[in-house]
Amino acid sequence: MSLLEMQNCDVFYGKAQALHDVSISVEEGEIVSLIGRNGAGKSTLLKAIMGLNPIASGKRMYDGRDATRLSTEMLGRSGIAYVPEDRRIFATLNVDENLRIATVMGREGAWNLERVYDLFPRLKERMTSRGDTLSGGEQQMLAVGRGLLTNPELLLLDEPTEGLAPLVVEDLIKAMALINAEGVAILLVEQNLKVPLKLAKRQYLIDNGHIRWSGKTEDLLAEREKIEGLISL
Amino acid sequence: MSTIVIGLSMGMLLFLLAAGLTLIFGMLRVINFAHGSLYMLGAYLAFQMVSVTGSFWAGLVAAPIIAAIIGALMERIALRPVYDRDHVYQLLLTFGFILVLDEAVRIIWGLEYKQMYPPELFAGAIEMFGSSVPSYRLFIIGFGAAVSAALFFMLDRSRYGMIIRAASGDPEMVRTLGINVSLVRTGVFSFGAGLAALGGAVAGPLFPIELGMGFNIIIDSFIVVIIGGLGNIRGAVMAALLIGMTRALGYSYAPSWVDFLTFILLIGTLILRPEGLFSRKGRTA
User: Fold this and answer.
1) Least Cα separation, residue B161 to chain A (angstroms)
2) A47: Cα separation from own chain's centroid
3) Which stretches are transmembrane (chain B) (predicted)?
4) How far is Cα of residue B263 from the mean position of the Cα atoms in its chain?
5) Is A84 within 8 Å of B284 when comparing Cβ atoms?
């Protein structure tokens, strides 16, 4: 049984259809990535999973139950955490508050403030700084930390390494591997193959609102050129 | 001296209203025209409690609680369905609240003035620096300062304040953390309604209680909110004291220029610092 299954989902922005008959699944404890160009529908799909975009037709199954009608807050409480592309740090809250707010309704579990500060020591140094004074890398760590503090089973990461310095990217990759090693499944969205090839065992390729290819990472490598052509990376 | 006391007490009263307006605007993006009616309702409720129980303090406690319940109902039943619509609908709706509340007050309490008296403890006057100051005014200043301190403590230090600040900026992201934002909205509206009624109850012994009493003060409260910076509650404190002092000084030295002075402050702010006199960039709640 999969942890999350999106079955034949159609999603619209106004009258324009953004996702066509999209089906993806995430197994417990795995890292899967979703790769596609700008505007391919990656963020739209993540938002649909989180209940932030309505699913016009199709199903969202979570933990073996039909979760199509669950609200965003119920999905959050059921164990899905969302780390958006633009991080969406609470600007008027300081770093510590940005983390603590996730514990208010978060689930019980292995992750607590102390462990998040251990994972990202830089955040501890900046504990009392307001959210809108952080650098891009700090914001990304904070967004991941905030998501972790809800003690999720599934972490949705939207382009976590975008626009970050290579050293920070290395740190984040290590952090993601560590988080996954603790049993948290990760759905990783990226524009290119660089990070997904390092972390994910399975890949989905999306273009123009359609899933064009899905399969194991080694199969992707074997047919890399042909597959990259499919989604014009 | 008495001018300063009158100014400060006026400022505190304005702050109670402006704080509610500011919180509601920050959280719901709704400009609540009915805030003045809730203030009026608070005065009538307090009057009623005082005539039933004989205790001013019972009125001071009961009025905001009843108004908060009414506020919660207003938000749940009427405002919630129109959040996704154009702002005009919300404005019209809060305007509708005015009509309903005013009519309800007229039916229940009639048209004649009601009068409330300060509690015995603060009924007299105190000699300060050679002038006589009504001690009830001093009570308002102390009480207002205590309420604002509690409010800031709640916003800055408590878990509720943290959620309100976060949800004022990015409600969707707060929802992803499992927090029921629509409940927070109801809470904030209800709390704002309670603050307005608290203002009304405190103002009861100062002014005649009448149907139009909400109208005068709501204009000044909106001016306070704009001068303080829309959605900036710290700015609202300073602006409330500024407007309160301006009006008190105006009444003693140039009574016919009072409104003129207030509006000059408003226009000056809008021209020179439209984001509010006391605004720090990016500051909300």
Assistant:
1) 10
2) 10
3) 6-26, 33-50, 56-79, 91-109, 136-155, 183-207, 260-278
4) 19
5) no
Residue B35: left if φ>0, alpha if ψ -120 to 50, beta else—which one? alpha
Question: Which of B256, B241, B255 shows the shortest CA–CA distance to B8?
Answer: B241
Closest chain B C-alpha to A22 CA, distance in angstroms: 22
Interface touch A101/B163, C-beta < 8 Å:
yes
Residues in contact with B81: Cβ distance below 8 Å, sequence separation at least 6, in sequence order: none
pLDDT at residue A31, rounded to an integer: 96
Question: Could you tell me if A87 and A79 are in contact, meaning their C-beta atoms sit under 8 angstroms apart?
Answer: no
Residues contacting residue B240 through CB under 8 Å, at least 6 positions apart: B11, B12, B14, B15, B18, B224, B228
Residues of B in contact with A75 (CB under 8 A): 176
| Residue B60: both structure tokens together | 């001071």
* Residues in chain B, pLDDT under 50: 282-285
As a dihedral over the C-alpha atoms of residue B178, residue B27, residue B172, residue A106, rounded to 10 degrees, the angle is -20
Chain A residues with beta carbon closer than 8 angstroms to that of B282: 91-92, 132
In the sheet with A65-66, reading across from the earlier edge strand, the strands are A16-26, A4-13, A57-62, A65-66
Dihedral angle sign, alpha carbons of residues A88, A90, A91, A94: negative
Mutate to test the interface with A, among B22, B177, B280 (most CBs of A within 10 A): B177
The residues spanned by each domain of chain A are 4-230
**What residues of B are in contact with residue A101 (Cβ under 8 Å)?**
162-163, 166, 174, 177, 179
pLDDT band at A232 (very low <50, low <70, confident <90, very high): low
CATH, domain range A4-230: 3.40.50.300
